Automatic annotation (TrEMBL):
<dbReference type="Pfam" id="PF23183">
    <property type="entry name" value="bHLH_NPAS4"/>
</dbReference>
<dbReference type="InterPro" id="IPR036638">
    <property type="entry name" value="HLH_DNA-bd_sf"/>
</dbReference>
<dbReference type="InterPro" id="IPR011598">
    <property type="entry name" value="bHLH_dom"/>
</dbReference>
<protein>
    <recommendedName>
        <fullName>BHLH domain-containing protein</fullName>
    </recommendedName>
</protein>
<dbReference type="GO" id="GO:0000977">
    <property type="term" value="F:RNA polymerase II transcription regulatory region sequence-specific DNA binding"/>
</dbReference>
<keyword id="KW-0804">Transcription</keyword>
<dbReference type="GO" id="GO:0046983">
    <property type="term" value="F:protein dimerization activity"/>
</dbReference>
<dbReference type="InterPro" id="IPR056192">
    <property type="entry name" value="bHLH_NPAS4"/>
</dbReference>
<feature type="domain" description="BHLH">
    <location>
        <begin position="1"/>
        <end position="53"/>
    </location>
</feature>
<keyword id="KW-0539">Nucleus</keyword>
<keyword id="KW-0238">DNA-binding</keyword>
<keyword id="KW-0805">Transcription regulation</keyword>
<dbReference type="GO" id="GO:0000981">
    <property type="term" value="F:DNA-binding transcription factor activity, RNA polymerase II-specific"/>
</dbReference>
Length: 72
């Protein structure tokens, strides 16, 4: 059975949203702050968190995002 394009698109979106929620749960911020973040802002903060993790390992030279302080 073939899934419609509309159904396949919704399944992809659902999968992406689920993964964003999983990654957002790993951030060192309160649950309240996590729930306030849109998916777009969540991705920005997740990327910043990863970049800063690399920075503190001495492999990245610059990273900044207003929602993720340097002393996370």
């Amino acid at each position: 059975m073939r899934v419609s394009t509309k159904g396949a698109s919704k399944a992809r979106r659902d999968h992406i949203n689920h993964e964003i929620k999983n990654m957002r749960a790993l951030l060192p911020i309160t649950l309240e702050d996590q729930e306030r973040l849109s998916y777009l802002h969540s991705m920005a903060v997740i990327c910043t968190y990863i970049k800063k993790s690399v920075l503190f390992q001495g492999k990245f030279s610059y990273c900044s995002h207003p929602l993720m302080p340097l002393n996370f």
